[in-house]
Amino acid sequence: MTAPERATPVDSPGSPRPRGREAVTAAILEAARVLIAERGPASVSLRDIAHEAKVNLGLVYKYVGTKEQLITEVTRRAAASAAERLREVEHLGDALALLVTIGDGKIGRVLAWAALEGRVPTEQFGPSPALAVLSDLYLRDATSAGIDASDEDARLLAAMAMTAVLGWRVLGAYALTSAGLDPNEGERYDARIRSLAQTLGNLAVTRLTTAGDS
Question: Closest Cα partner for 98 from 176, 186, 193?
């Protein structure tokens, strides 16, 4: 966890223009992810994204579509990538420990901007495969512990976990400052942060189910 810094431009000097549909689409989505995380959707035009990706504006419309479709695809791919990583772990605590430190945190900023701009979740985003994996891990751990957990419990846990993880990725530096810690030394705390996330995940297996039965 490090202090926020300006996004590194995709369109760096000397970088080659992407060629072929797959490379062009990847460049467009990466440019969108970087720029929207930095400025917010309302302040980024498709022309900005095309310029950053070093592609013709028409290719943005052709390969991805409108800005709304672009945001949806950026978040969809991020969720798919996270799900792939989460399938490598066996327990909920391990999954949360992984999520608090992987990646660069930009997707959290994209979602935060979307929320601040009042974008309707049901219109912009769909079910997340990453949250589905978290739900499955919760149910698996609960079953191993002899706990009869419901699918609704699992989905609630996944939603809360996503909120906590993304909140940390976006606001962690500010939280460290408020706690009297140096956000520039955030990487020094990473091991303890992962350990705390793992502990919270393990506790959630019993606590959430117990609360639901009370």
Answer: 193
Give the torsion through C-alpha atoms of 175, 177, 181, 184, to 10 deg.
Answer: 100
Range of the structural domain that residue 58 is part of: 7-65
Question: Quick one: 98 and 147 in the same domain?
Answer: yes
Same domain, 142 and 206: yes
Per-residue pLDDT of the chain (214 residues; tens, 9 = 90+): 444 433 334 445 557 888 888 999 999 999 999 999 999 999 999 999 999 999 999 999 999 999 999 999 999 999 999 999 999 999 999 999 999 988 888 999 999 999 999 888 877 788 899 999 999 999 999 999 888 889 998 999 999 999 999 999 899 999 999 999 999 887 888 899 999 999 988 888 876 555 555 4
Model's pTM, two decimal places? 0.81
Give dist(CA 169, CA 209) in Å, integer. 27
Contact between 93 and 206 (Cβ < 8 Å): no
Within a 10 A sphere around the Cβ of 98, how many other Cβ atoms?
19
Residue 180 belongs to a domain with what CATH number? 1.10.357
- Look up residue 188 and give its DSSP letter: G
* Residues contacting residue 112 through CB under 8 Å, at least 6 positions apart: 166, 170
| Same-domain pairing of 60 and 89 | no
